[in-house]
Specification:
By secondary structure, the protein is α/β, with parallel strands linked by helices. It has one domain: Rossmann fold, CATH 3.40.50. Strand 4, helix 4 and strand 5 form a beta-alpha-beta unit. It starts with 30 loop residues before the first helix and ends with a strand.
Length: 239
């Protein structure tokens, strides 16, 4: 993989503060730079990605890899459809069926989940497929060690409040069960980055979840501090 930017670190040196490599080209925040750095460290196998919740594809986590590094893969979204985007509502019941339908390889480099609701439950349901890296949106309103998620609803609809997704601690525990290590969150408290645990050694220095966690830098402010969106009438459930 050609490294686009000349950051001053050796490939054989462990990275601890990956946030300093944040870069936004097509991503919402600094995900482009974080992902580029991760794959610079661990290499690639087939440069294949799956991203759902991609919107119209203009601002997403995999467009930079596709356009700058010649990756290929599957884009899905519940509302948008184009030559590049498959219009599919992804649920825990159909996620692996959709992967099979679109001929996703069992082992691939990157999975990006951003569906603003059932993210935890959909990731939990992926059993057969083994992405090397997973990027998933977390609900940063709930800091460690709180383990909560939305109650599963296949027809979940996001409202403009704090009822969405799952807390970082809930996702970290799920990732650990599935063989992944949490290595970073973007600085705005939106996405968490997981790498298969057998790829972490000699590449990354892993901090505690408390230090990896990033609080919300979006939504409303209370006493000058971001608190996410408005409080919801719906309650998250404990995991």
């Amino acid at each position: 993989m050609r490294f686009l930017f000349s950051w001053n670190f050796a490939k054989d040196r462990k990275i601890r503060y990956i946030n300093k490599f944040e870069l936004r080209i097509y991503s919402q925040n600094g995900e482009d730079g974080i992902l580029q750095t991760i794959f610079y460290k661990i290499g690639t196998k087939n440069r294949y990605f799956v991203e759902f919740g991609v919107g119209d594809g203009n601002e997403c986590n995999t467009r930079f890899l596709k356009e700058a590094h010649n990756w290929k893969g599957l884009w899905m979204d519940a509302k948008y459809k184009s030559n590049d985007i498959k219009k599919e509502l992804v649920t825990k019941e159909n996620v692996e069926k959709l992967f099979k339908k679109y001929k996703v390889p069992k082992n691939f480099d990157l999975l990006s989940i951003d569906i603003d609701g059932n993210d935890y439950w959909v990731w939990e349901a992926i059993k057969y497929y083994k992405p090397r890296v997973v990027v998933i949106e977390y609900n940063s309103v709930y800091p460690p060690p709180i383990k909560v998620a939305v109650k599963y609803d296949a027809n979940f609809e996001r409202e403009a409040d704090n009822y969405f997704g799952a807390s970082l601690s809930a996702l970290e525990a799920l990732g650990r069960e599935k063989g992944y290590t949490l290595i970073a969150c973007d600085s705005n408290g939106i996405n968490a980055f997981f790498v298969r645990s057998n790829l972490v050694k000699d590449r990354f220095l892993i901090d505690t979840i408390v230090n990896i966690y990033k609080p919300p830098k979006f939504g409303l402010k209370l006493d000058g501090k971001y608190v996410g969106y408005k409080k919801s009438k719906r309650e998250m459930i404990s995991i």
